[in-house]
Amino acid sequence: MTEPVASLTLPPDDPARALAVAHINEDDGLPHIGLVGDTYTVTVSGEDTNGRFCVIDMHIPPGGGPPPHRHDFEETFILLEGEMVATFRGAKTVVRAGDTINIPANAPHQFHNASSSATRLLCICSPAGQEKFFAEVGIPVATRTTPPPALTGEEQAAFIAKVVALAPKYRTELLKEA
Q: Which segments constitute the Cupin type-2 domain (predicted)?
């Protein structure tokens, strides 16, 4: 066993915190959330990390992705499958499977699947909280690839009003299309 470095002082282990394991294709307890035509599965929540970060597995069908927005937390995307167009401060970049991008806090951004195949990415938000926003405005769906139900015009208007009303609570600002 290695001796601890004397000058390093770490707090003791917190045995109240447990190992978090998400079996994305097997765990019926994971929240799958339909939102803006996409499906987001929370694999690590803020409760798991003492609020430090959350991890969201995102299934983005062709044409999917959120509108332009910004928020006061860091957001990192790791593309597992497919490709997407990331718009950062107005500049577009194509990001492909294997790539990682980080969106600094407060920066205007958007991502969009402009391809003909679904895109899968992991989203890491630090600090956590975005997963709660998604849960509050989204629609529960059965699996990580189940699309949310199509909304009527009236339902879409109610959804947008709900998102606009809740966005400030989750430190998010929706922006106009460029």
A: 58-125
Report yes or no on whether pTM surpasses 0.85. Answer: yes
Cβ contacts of 162 within 8 Å, gap of 6 or more: 137
pLDDT tier at 93 (50, 70, 90 boundaries)?
very high
Asked whether residue 116 is domain-assigned, the answer is: yes
Spatial distance between the Cα atoms of 172 and 136, rounded to a whole number of angstroms: 14
Most confident range (mean pLDDT) of 24-38, 95-109, 147-161 is: 95-109
The rounded distance, in Å, linking the Cα atoms of 112 and 86 is 7
Alpha helices in 102-152 (DSSP H): 130-137
Task: Note whether residue 55 is domain-resident.
Answer: yes
Would you state the pLDDT for residue 3? 67
| Structure tokens, 20 | 């978090």
User: Which pair of tokens denotes residue 115?
Assistant: 């391809």
**Does residue 63 surpass a pLDDT of 90?**
yes
Tokens 């694999």 correspond to 43
Token pair listed for 34: 């339909």
Domain that includes residue 56, residue range: 32-143+152-174
Q: Give SS3 for 114.
A: coil
